[in-house]
Amino acid sequence: MRPSKFASLQGISLRSAYQPASDEEALFCYENHRCLACNAIASASSLPDASVLQIERIFFKALPKSCDCGFTNEIFLILNNLLRPTDPKIPKANEAIAQAAEKDLLLDAFLEEQLVASTVAIHQGKLDAAIEINRDLNARFPDFFLPFYNLGVIYTKQQRYSESLEAYEAALRLNPEHSESLVNKALVQMHLSQLQEAGATYEQWRSMNSEGTAVLATAEGMFGKVTVFDTPEIRALCINEQMQGAFDKQPAANEYEPHCRPGPGPLSSLYYTAGFLLVGCHMPRASGLVIGLGCGSGLIMGLACFPEMRLTVVEIDPTVIRLCLTFFPLVQHYINAGRLQIIESDGAAFLQSNEQRFDFINFDVYTGEGEFPTKLRTVEFIKRIKASASLLFINIIGSLSEPYLHRVLATFDAAGQPIHTLYHCLPLEGNETNPMNWLAFTQALTVPDDFIPFADLTGEQIETVRHNFSSVRQNGISPARVRTYIEQIGLHVEPYRD
Known about the structure:
4-stranded antiparallel sheet
C-alpha cells in the first residue's frame, strides 16, 4: 500500500483529529495548523462557527481555514474531552475513536489521507496526479463514491465532459443523494448540450433541496447576466436582475402534459401573460410571431389554452434560449409537438427579410432595461413590418409621467399602425409615476364572455391567473385617454425615428 505524505499530520481526518481539553488548546491547534498545500501557518484569532457533528459517540467539528495560497484546509477537532466535565457519560476522545473504528464507522485511514492528497493536487493544478490518486482509490475501494466524484471535478476542469459525466453517474449509482454530484452532473450535461437531460437532473436536485430560493443557473448573456432562480412557488428568468418571465410550480409540467418531463407548469401569474389569452380569444387558430423569448411564460399560456395556435419565436441571445430549454420544460414540449419554433436571430434583421405572413406579431423585446432596443421602435421599422401581420401586440413598460410610453404610441401613429386599445395593470389615477405593463393592440379584440382560462384546473394559482385575465379585460382604454396626461404634465413628444 502506497504510503501517504500526510500520514503523520494531525487534524486532517477524524482518525487523526485534534483532541483539545480546553477552549484555549482548541484555538491553539487551529491557529498553528499548517496548510497542507504550502506548509504555511495562516493567522487566526478565533474559531469559525460550525455545527457540532456526531458519529457514534464522537462529537466533533470540521473547521475551514483559508490560507493565503488559496487552499482551504479542513481541520477536525474532537470535542469529547472538552464536553466531559459537564457530561461524564461522554467517553474520552481516544476511546470514542476506538469504539467507532471497531464498528467500522470510520473511513479507512489510507482512504482519508489519499482523498486529502487528491484535494491538494487539484488545488496545485497537478490534475494528472489527482487522476492517478482517484483511479487507485476506485480500484481499492470500488463501493465508495467520492473518488468518482473527484474524477468528475477533474475531468470538467480538463473539459473532458463525456468522461466527467460518466464519473458523476458512477458516483450517483453509489450515492444517489449526493447533492454536489447531481448539480455538477447537470452542469456537464449543459456543456454537452443535453439540455432536457440537464433539466431533469436539476429537478432531481431541487426535489432534494426544496426549501427557500435557489439560483439554478447564472450565465453571461448578450445583454448582461442571465439568471434562473427557483422558489417553492415559482421559477423565473432574469436579465440583470430584471424579471423576464416566470412560471408557477403548480401544477407541474408533467401533471399538465403527461408526456412532458417534470418542472414548472403552464401557469404564470404575471400580468403580461394575460395578453396572450386576449389574442387567443380573438384568434384561437392564430399563427403568431413572437419577438423575444424570456422564459416563454406568455407564449406557453397561449399554446396551452388554444390547442390550434402555433407560434414562431425569434430570440437573439443563445444563452436565454439554452437556459429556457433547460429549465422550462413545456417550451421543449411544444417544440416537440410541432406547435412552437425558436429561431436564434436578431429580431429586426429577421423581420426585414421575412416573407411569411403571420396573424399577429408580439413585441416583448427588452435587454434587461425598461425600453425596447432602439431599432425596434422607430417609424421606419414599423412601416417595414406592416405587411407581416394584421395585428401587432406590444408589451410596453413605462409610466404616464415619462415620455417613453407616449413616444412609442406616437411612433405607431406616424407609421400608420395606430394603437387601438391599451390594457394597463394598475389603476391610472394616482399611478402616474409608477412604471407598469401596457398591453397595446392595433386592433379591437373580440373576447367571448364565457371564456375561462384553463377551465379544467383548480387551485390558488389558477384563480390568480383568472383574476389577472378578468382585470385585463376591464382595464382596456383608448390611447386618447393616455394622451390626456401629456397635456397635464407638459410633455413634448416626438415619434422615434432612425
